[in-house]
Amino acid sequence: MKISIVILAVGICSISSADAQLRPSTFRLSAVNSDSISTSSQPLSNSVYPIVVSNGTVYLATVNGLNFTTNGGATFQSFQGATSPADSSISSVAIEGDTIAAAVAAPQIDLSGSPTDVGGGLYVSTDNGATWTYTKQSQDDSTDTTIVFGKSTLKALPIQTSVQNISYSLAFFQGYLYSANWGGGLRRTSDLGRTWHRVVLPPDNLSYINQDSVYTFELSVQANTVYNTTEANLNQEPFFVYSDGDSVLYVGTANGINKTTDNGASWYKFNHQNDPGMSGDWVLWIAADNYNGNHYIWAVTRNAVDPTEVSALSYTMNGGSTWQNIFDGHNFHSVAVDGKTAYGASDDGLFRTSNFGISSQVITNIYDQATGQSNLSQVFNAVAVQGDTVWVGTNDGVAAGIDNGYGLLQNDWNVFRTYVSVSKPSSTYFYPNPFSPRLDVGRIHYLVNTSGSTVTIRIFDFSMHPVRTLIQNVPQNAGQQDVPWNGLDDSGQMVDNGVYFYSVVVNSQAPAWGKILVIR
Q: Would the pLDDT of 19 be above 50?
């Protein structure tokens, strides 16, 4: 994926995809005020990124708020209240003890013809979600043109916009909350967001810095004549921050992985140029676990600007001194590790390996035998591990499968999807609508009152010519039903952009009609 930079009228930011991060941590549910929690049988959204497992609880970051489940998906709970992040688009979460920090995104704007992310601020609860406080997205003052790093006073470019200054990742470390803000740089707060301070990372041309040395580099991602900065440092564009306990903090940027053990007084940087075993410099995700007496660090590493870089999963067993990579050529979004077993959520399915890539299993489609529901998206955005259960998030819902040590079964999953119930067989709707077949799996939702009823669903173009018969005289159980459509006609060709109609006929009843807007 190309990394580029754009100058705005009030600041500077970098263009990226809207990925985010969540670090496993401790969360004690016992103290939560039940009045601040809403319970549902469905998740808040069918699009979830990321997923984190902490102390037996699974957390789902969604565009409609923060979900969690303590019973394997039998019910989903969410934080409610006027001051909570309810209905907000969650971009990242960090949890430590009773404290929950949730960064949110504001509505996207169009920038140079592309949807562009905007930082929406930070919600913090110190009582397990019973009450919340909110602070705006951190920005600099126009006078913040220098920053002190030990013996050095460095020239700095102030960021005075929330556009692309969005918190894609949060992590608690040694008394601070760190935030990777991409266009806004690496920042930290000691008072849970009331005040923020920029953190100095190495420039692109240095692999180690410390406060005892004197430097003249700039804290800048782009030359800017207004503020007289001349440097463009991809390493000062952080995307992911991971606290490996309270001993090491790792920061993934567009120029590699930065490591500190002394809260930013010194930094080591690892990247593809220093060690080709790290497949690429753009680091989207970091995870860690122990195996066979070694501590492994895993990272999603994508190609940035060097043509020799490739997208893959990279790992180290010696704190970053040397790196290796597996599954090159696949675009991963997140990685989860359980001992020797690594799971990678990618554009090409869910990858699993227990021998560092010598052999692997790839899951694409998922089926829930109990409900008959399928998760049909081959793009996996999120993955997390809870004991022998593997949780995944796609644009077609959330699912949980069992790994018994020998692999995942494609047809032995629980699929969770949200929908709006209809109250009568004559009502139906299609979602998502508008529908992009290249990005989503569309579904026709309707109601069957009596088990054993036969159902026929057909799709027509705007002139009412038949386009596709999805099912014909298929017996179904009573209840809310979904039937997927992938945007293909009966000959297997992708349909053109436009308006389409569909009919749902249950037994010999009058058809229920709906409309679909296809935008490829």
A: no
Structure tokens at 488: 């293909």
Q: Measuring CA to CA, which residue among 370, 328, 365 is closest to residue 350?
A: 365
CATH number at residue 478: 2.60.40.4070
- Give the DSSP letter string of 333-373: EEEEEETTEEEEEETTEEEEESSTTSS-EEE--EE-TTT--
CA angle 338/355/293 to nearest 5° reads 60
Preceding amide of 276 cis, omega within 30: no
Res 409: pLDDT: 82
Structural domain containing residue 470: 429-518
The answer to whether the beta carbons of residues 305 and 296 sit under 8 Å apart is no
The Cα–Cα gap between 400 and 43 comes to 13
**Contact of 207 with 266, CB cutoff 8 Å:** no
Please write the tens of the pLDDT for every residue from 267-284.
999 999 999 999 999 999
Judge if pTM exceeds 0.70: yes
Q: Where are the beta strands (DSSP E) in 82-228?
A: 89-96, 99-111, 114-125, 133-135, 146-149, 152-155, 165-173, 176-182, 186-189, 197-198, 208-210
* 488-519: b (≥16 Cβ within 10 Å) or e: eeeeeeebeeeebbbbbbbeeeeebebebebe
**Of 32-41, 290-299, 305-314, 488-497, minimum mean pLDDT range:** 32-41
Lowest pLDDT segment from 77-86, 117-126, 146-155: 77-86
Closest CA to 109 of 6, 231, 208: 6
Question: Is 153 within a domain?
Answer: no
- pLDDT for the residue numbered 114: 86
Reply yes or no on whether the pLDDT at 307 is more than 80: yes
Domain count, the chain: 1
